[in-house]
Amino acid sequence: MTDTPLDFGDPEDLERLRHDFRAWLAGHPLPERPADEPLPVFLHRWHRQLHSGGWVGLDVPEQYGGRGLTALHQVTVSDELGARGAPGVPRIGYLAHALLRFGSEEQRRRLLPRMLSGDDVWCQGFSEPGAGSDLAGMSTYAERRPEGHYIVNGQKLWTSYAQYSGLCLLLARTDRAAPAHTSISAFLLPLDRPGVTVRPLRAANGDDEFCELFLDDVRLEEFERIGAEGDGWPLAMTTVAYERNALDTGHLSKYGLLIERLRRAAHERRGTLPDGLLSDIGRCAVDYQVLVAHARRRTAERLAGQSAGPESSVDKLLMTRAEQRLYETALKVFPEELYGEGGEVLGDYFYSRAASVYGGTSQIQRNIIAKRLLGLPVGPRA
Ligand SMILES: Cc1cc2nc3c(=O)[nH]c(=O)nc-3n(C[C@H](O)[C@H](O)[C@H](O)COP(=O)(O)OP(=O)(O)OC[C@H]3O[C@@H](n4cnc5c(N)ncnc54)[C@H](O)[C@@H]3O)c2cc1C
Fold first, then answer.
1. What would the CATH number be for the domain defined by 122-229?
2. Among 6, 152, 155, residue whose Cα is nearest residue 75
3. Are strands 211-220 and 150-156 parallel, antiparallel or unpaired?
4. If you take atom 3 of ligand 1, which residue's CA is the nearest one?
5. CATH classification of 244-373, choosing from 1.20.140.10, 2.60.40.10, 1.10.10.10, 1.10.260.40?
6. What pLDDT does 345 receive?
């Protein structure tokens, strides 16, 4: 693991940005969400509103539709949103980084501005029924035809919000003979292409976040491939490393708000909360401080020009533990959430259970830490 000094750049510059953002937020409050509006639709409206003020893609170069500032400026905006309990900036940073690194100049200029503005909504087509943790074992196949285009067949699973998306970052095998890690390519799949079927799945909590994606003789052109043939594996690893990174401080500020609420409840109900629960609140506060330190460290690394890598697995494990402990504790302190109508804490509690699965399971993060950070000898399954 690297040891980058914590350098947070010019505080005056950031103070100015924070001030400008607060002023903008005062004139552009969070829009109302009608009871029947699906969450992704509401978040998309919020995304567009933030973009209209220039608050999306602050660290993306200007020629690709961003503001050409730094990760620290983006973090500052995220932090302000989280501290207000507002939804964060749209979670597209990891897709943008994959495009910045692997896309051609033409793809970056064409796709990034529309991604940042919300004109194009993307989803991520990596997992399959037989390939989640073992992503390299995917079987979706893009056969290259002599004319130069590809014909794709296969199935993707758990594709979040594909039914609200127009484009999918798709991984498919392009060579059946080569080793798995060099035989996967990445494509930009328009979801209205003939042969694509998107079928939403209803989860136990009533949400239809997940989708199945069926691909039957779908034609993709060569210019729709992102990177070279065989670049799909490093592209996927870049994407998930950014996805697992602790850089987005918006959710940390949200944890901070809940910890403060727990602290107040402990004071108000002095003597009635069991000691075990008070210790749990203390542990949540410690988890939070550790995560904040990690977010600072990742920000400093990014400012030093370092890309996200396997150390993101440490962040993902810490975040999972912190989030699950926090919402479990909150439900014990506020049992009315569980037995009453069920508010935000209950919804967040349910979603926190998925944290040890999405973006790669906790077991897989431990394997990555063992293998790539600690260099431990590993068995054939890892
Ligand atoms: C909320 C949510 C959103 C998601 N969104 C998307 C999305 O948008 N796009 C997408 O492509 N995917 C998405 N996923 C899928 C997610 O990436 C996979 O669920 C995850 O990678 C695990 O794969 P799996 O479900 O097939 O489980 P499996 O890989 O079948 O794993 C089952 C169990 O075996 C364990 N295991 C497997 N292999 C090993 C090993 N080598 N060592 C130790 N333990 C092992 C796992 O840890 C797990 O406990 C999402 C998942 C969730 C929960």
1. 2.40.110.10
2. 6
3. antiparallel
4. 358
5. 1.20.140.10
6. 85
Pairing mode, strands 167-173 and 122-125: parallel
The minimum-distance atom of ligand 1 relative to the CA of 129 is 26
Q: CA 173, 239, 120: angle at the middle one, nearest 5?
A: 90
Ligand 1 pocket, Cβ-based, cut-off 6 angstroms: 123-127, 132-133, 158-160, 354, 357-358, 360-361, 363-364, 367, 381-382
Structure-token pair, residue 38: 């699906």
Tell me which of 243, 301, 311, 323 is the catalytic residue: 243
Which numeric CATH code is attached to 11-90?
1.10.540.10
Mean pLDDT, consecutive 10-residue stretches, the chain (382 aa), reads 43 88 93 89 94 94 95 86 81 86 96 96 95 93 97 97 96 91 95 98 81 98 96 91 73 88 92 92 94 84 85 92 96 82 79 91 95 85 52
- The answer to whether residue 224 is catalytic is no
